[in-house]
């Protein structure tokens, strides 16, 4: 069903995802309506399939973004702090920023400098059309930095929600540490093939998890040397 959700406009794409039952929560629907994929995916923006964004990277299909937002929605509340690992072209960073609002904070971490620069450019273009994104960019409530996603944020800080857009062979220790008590993380875990897991952190610091479905994601890795200075 997900692969049948493509459309000719962002509004129609979101409507199709809703009709397919992929996104049902009002705040998720509104965030995706206001985060136009054309700013983050210039080619085949509204197809429900992964698309290339340069640097041998892809942006996930819209239905995968929708599933991630649905799973994290309870932790994407006003004023909450969010970490987006493998933030790519910045789409999900922007959508989650719209959900946590001007008092929230979203940090994207990307391991290729060219994608860090691209996502900042995309966010600035989006900001021209939305005062909220403009405010959050100007006041550093949205930031994108270069870093090793396996190490989480380069700073020693905690987050209420963590999204990981690339696969880890096992749950990275630093991400466990940076997840706040009562926080939630969504991450693909495995080697050649993975499962998407949702982790919840309890008051005692322990994690519980549930598996959503099997996927095949690119792994969290070091940046290719060819891209170091691009």
UniProtKB/TrEMBL annotation:
Q: Name one GO biological process term.
A: methylation
EC class, as a word, reads transferase
Which superkingdom heads the taxonomic lineage of this protein's source?
Eukaryota
List, alphabetically, the Pfam families matched: PCMT (PF01135)
Recorded E.C. number(s)? Answer: 2.1.1.77
Is Transferase there in the keyword field?
yes
What's the chief localization of this chain?
cytoplasm
User: What CDD domains does its record include?
Assistant: AdoMet_MTases (cd02440)
Location(s) in or outside the cell: Cytoplasm
Can you tell me which family this protein belongs to?
Answer: Belongs to the methyltransferase superfamily. L-isoaspartyl/D-aspartyl protein methyltransferase family.
User: Matching NCBIfam families, A to Z?
Assistant: pimt
Question: In its UniProt entry, what is this protein called?
Answer: protein-L-isoaspartate(D-aspartate) O-methyltransferase
Q: Which organism is it from?
A: Schizosaccharomyces octosporus (strain yFS286)
């Amino acid at each position: 069903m997900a692969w049948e959700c493509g459309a000719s406009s962002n509004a129609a794409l979101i409507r199709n995802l809703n009709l397919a039952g992929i996104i049902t929560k009002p705040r998720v629907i509104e965030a995706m309506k206001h985060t136009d994929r054309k700013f983050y995916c210039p080619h085949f923006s509204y197809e429900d399939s992964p698309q290339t964004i340069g640097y041998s990277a892809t942006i996930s299909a819209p239905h995968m973004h929708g599933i991630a937002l649905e799973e994290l929605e309870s932790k994407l509340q006003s004023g909450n702090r969010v970490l987006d690992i493998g933030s790519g072209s910045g789409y999900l960073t922007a959508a989650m920023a719209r959900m946590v609002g001007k008092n929230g904070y979203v940090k994207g971490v990307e391991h290729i400098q060219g994608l860090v620069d691209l996502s900042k450019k995309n966010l600035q273009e989006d900001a021209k059309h939305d005062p909220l994104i403009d405010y959050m960019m100007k006041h550093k409530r949205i930031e994108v930095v270069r870093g090793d996603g396996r190490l989480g944020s380069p700073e020693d800080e905690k987050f209420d929600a963590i999204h990981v857009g690339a696969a880890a062979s096992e749950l990275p220790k630093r991400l466990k540490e940076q997840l706040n008590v009562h926080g939630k993380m969504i991450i693909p875990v495995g080697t050649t093939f993975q499962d998407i897991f949702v982790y919840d952190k309890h008051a005692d610091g322990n994690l519980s998890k549930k598996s959503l479905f099997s996927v095949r994601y690119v792994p969290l890795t070091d940046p290719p040397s060819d891209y170091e200075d691009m």
